[in-house]
Amino acid sequence: MKKILYSFLAVTALFVSANMNAQEPNKDLLIGPGSNNWFLGIGGGVNALYDAKELSKPNNLAIAVNIGKWFTPAIGFRAGYVGLKDTAPMNVWFAGTNQFNYNLAHLDAMWNLAGTANYKLNRVWNPILYVRGGGVIANYQKVNKYGLAGGLGLINQFRLGNHASLAIDLSAITANGDNFVTKGRDKFTTFMTGTIGLVFDLGNRGFKRPATPKVDTRAIDELRNQLRAANARVDEANRSAAA
Questions:
Q1: Which pLDDT score, from 0 to 100, does residue 226 have?
Q2: DSSP symbols for the chain
Q3: What pairs with residue 147 in β-bridges?
Q4: Which residue has the higher pLDDT, 12 or 234?
């Protein structure tokens, strides 16, 4: 498991470094209108469960649906649901290798690594890193277990056209192990998911720079002239009073 996590972090660091070195930072802030840059994602793939140095075979079904919005070319959020079927390792709370179901409702804060420099609306490849938080409900033989979870994910998104992209999504979230396994076995349980699917843009796309407030230089000049005239009258009154 440690090798998997180290590899994941190394790949992420490589993406960040390559993106920062290849392009100069865009100093102009871009913001999308409230109705722009919404998207819907759907996908399917496989799951694996890791607990106490045991890893289940990643050959179990995952179905993912999410909706989100990009607020800037680099920063976005999404909310989603992952319906999962998995197989537990031996001797866990699920009592063997029988299949069980668990559901994840999540919120993701996303960072488009390619959106931090020289933004392009129709960029073909976008590596996206996200931080995930959510709640897990696991069910086995009509018994439910609940837990909060947090983790990381990485999306490789490839634009197919004006309103659709192909997305490869890898994620790992960790929950309190006592909620899902026999006490004393392990403190944490990690749910890993890999999916491939489509992302559809909803409505308009694009960002723009915030409007710069216009300054009325003529009005400012007029105020300055009035201030100078008032100061001159005060000086004249002071001289008259002194005489």
A1: 81
A2: -HHHHHHHHHHHHHHHHHHHHHS----S--B--TTSSEEEEEEEEEEEEEETTEE--S-EEEEEEEEEEESSSSEEEEEEEEEEEEEPPTTSTT-SS-EEEEEEEEEEEEEEGGGGSS--TT-SEEEEEEEEEEEEEEEETTEEEEEEEEEEEEEEEEE-SSSEEEEEEEEEEEEEGGGTS-TTT-SEEEEEEEEEEEEEEES----BPPPPPPP-HHHHHHHHHHHHHHHHHHHHHHHHHH-
A3: 136
A4: 234
Q: Are 84 and 193 in contact (CB under 8 A)?
A: yes
pLDDT score recorded for residue 65: 96
Q: Taking the alpha carbons of 159, 163, 166, 169 in that order, is the dihedral positive or negative? A: positive
Tokens of 202: 């909803």
